[in-house]
Design brief:
- By secondary structure, the chain is α/β, with parallel strands linked by helices.
- Helices cover 39% and strands 13% of the residues.
- The chain contains 17 helices and 13 strands.
- The strands form 3 sheets. Strands 3, 4, 5, 6, 7, 8, 9, 10 and 11 form a 9-stranded mixed sheet that branches. Strands 1-2 form a two-stranded antiparallel ribbon.
- Strand 7 and strand 8 form a beta hairpin.
Length: 553
Amino acid sequence: MHTRQYQEGAMALTTTAPLPRLETRKPTGRVDWPMIVLAGTPKTGKSYMCAEFGNSDLIGRLIWIPVGESDADSFGQISDFELADKHDGTFRSILNTVLRAVAEPRADNGKPNAIVLDSGSILWELLSDEAELIARSRAAEKAAKYRRPGPGADDDVVVGHSLWNRAKDRWRLILNALRRHDGPVIICCRLEEVTEFDTQGNPTRNRTWKVKAERNLRYDATVVLQLRSYRRPTLTDVRSLRMRLAPDEERDRPGMTLDVLMRELGMDQNIHTQSITYTPMQPEAGLQEFARETEERVLANAAATEMRRYAAEGTLPPPHEVIEYIKQALAHQNDPRAALLMVRTAYTKSVLAKVVINTKRGEVDASTAIDNLLADLGLPPTGTAGSAPPPERAPQEATPQEPREGSPEPQPGPPASAAAEEASPAPAPKSAPPENPQKPAPAAKKETPAQVRQRKVAEAVRREADYQARVLSLGLPDYLADLLPSGASPDQVSTYELSEYVKAKRPAVVAALIRGKEFSTVEAYTKVGDGPCMNIDDVFADCKMITGTAAAA
């Protein structure tokens, strides 16, 4: 790619570098470890088929994780499998059990381990119940806010999309862990016959079979095997090149065992091979990127405010400052062209036309230098496609000795010098010239309005975190333990992370205030909204839980 460089002394303005080469690899042709969904009506032999698979010579160990089922011990008469039932019935405990099972090494004979999760239906019910309990708690808090009766035990509550998405995210954590397992996975589920609905949502006379679990499970599974009657499997969903099944096809396979199914899928070819790499998606990285983008926008707005100051005061910025902002714009990861245009818009074109910098095309004003860089990036100098270029002269014709046509009226003083270190431009500013043109800008600058706002928001968020910790009878380091690395200080948490944290904790703090009968504080705190609370001291001014904590301290 042809690249032009603009430099003043040792500083260079360079267009963005080309992207690194794409890394690819050839497919191995191997068959993925199968994830089997074994769904059945009650007493049709789901657990029996799983226990029977423990005798297969395709696997070394069978690790059975019971979730809400209690009869796994009785199937020890069929095969020698291992029960992982030490979890306490909570999601985190179940997830940790799954992660430990996935991390177990292969057996001594080098054959892979098989994992049975029994049952996926009860796991999804657990996550659904969690969402409903949170929704019921929120409804009770809202009722307390308006001093009205809360929902009763038999009253329905609306579970919002955010809570369902939370349940799906937790389900996905389990599925992603099982995907990384070096061996086959069997997920037992319950099967029920339900009424079909038409496209308008009206019930029909038709009946269909439904797997009771998170609705996307059938897409994650390699095979869905249904047991509608005792030990009579029916294949309904298959993703395999060896076992072909049309999307709407069903195939009865009486007498089929899991060992037979695994062999037909080609698992016998994978026994002594390495595990297949699975890369799960990481939405948390998007949250971190969003936080970085937010901070970048704050800094960019503060910089733009500083740039506009020169146009408002009728003064000129030093050339080295302009060059530094142009270099930062060129280094922009997503859109250097838009960043360059922002620099010119913020300073204004009339200001940049008076700031002279030395480039490889000669001495040109900063506005022309930006035009040249935009041309190198494939954008017309005006920044809009199809527009006529605005410069009064071609950028290539610019020379250190050449006067600029269309520039402001001549000012007293010598023309622009070719020395790269010169801090003042050739035309004198409208205001009185500084006593020493070569004196650098003062190091300490007055805070811009954006910087003042940013500082006040940070202070308010940290004050709110302190109030929340005291309401919950915790020290601030303990309260922020989830955000802090080992040995870190609360001051090291970014404002964005802390803001999201205190917003998520507000319902729990409100509940604690209700239990403490701090109704006036509850009323004030529930009016805060979703953003930072800039009057947080006023909200907690009359809170006896805070004053009592302070007095005790």
